[in-house]
Amino acid sequence: MYDLWHSCCEYPITPSVTIMKILSILLFLAVSAFGHSQEKYSIPSWEDWTDKEILSKIPQPIVTGYGNLSDSLFTKYGIPFYESSGEYFAIGSLADYYYWFIKRYNNLFIKPIEVYEYYYATSDSLNMAIFVQENYKGKHYPIPFKRVAEKLIERESASFVHEKRQDVNKEIYIHRDHPIYSTVGRSTGSSKPPSPKTSTPKKVGN
């Protein structure tokens, strides 16, 4: 008993030491909780854009759009439905969510929604993610995602230019092989149609 008392008196617990211990414990708990959350939730990338399971693996979006019919639609189909201008959109993936978000808040994007709609219709995950990344004017994404690497953006941009050139060349090819083109001096390269042949009328009688 004497030894225990002696040790306590020898190393007294001061308020500053107590506070430091409490702060150390809280910091440890915070780091542990953060590490656990990182294991439980991973930030999605463009590769997850059309994944039908990704929304169940990440926290709820900071911006939602439930309407009067959302509950009944969820009961019927088993997935969330968000409303925009009287329309309801099934939210089953990141692609679906950002399609609704762009429709609802189109003023927050530089390019028109038709660009995203094209990629959405063709399930082009990479270009959908690039569209949001490059055109969103807000400070925080409603659903955070890993930024698309600049190399991928440059590659897609170069591919787009190449496709446009191919389209132009294809149009020229079709134009030159069109039946109408065969009537306009194809061998000489003239753009003017040949003059119609005329014949001298035969004299009749004397």
Automatic annotation (TrEMBL):
This is Uncharacterized protein. The chain crosses the membrane at residues 12-34. Residues 197-206 have a biased composition (Low complexity). It comes from the Bacteria. Keywords: Membrane, Transmembrane, Transmembrane helix. Residues 181-206 are annotated as: Disordered.
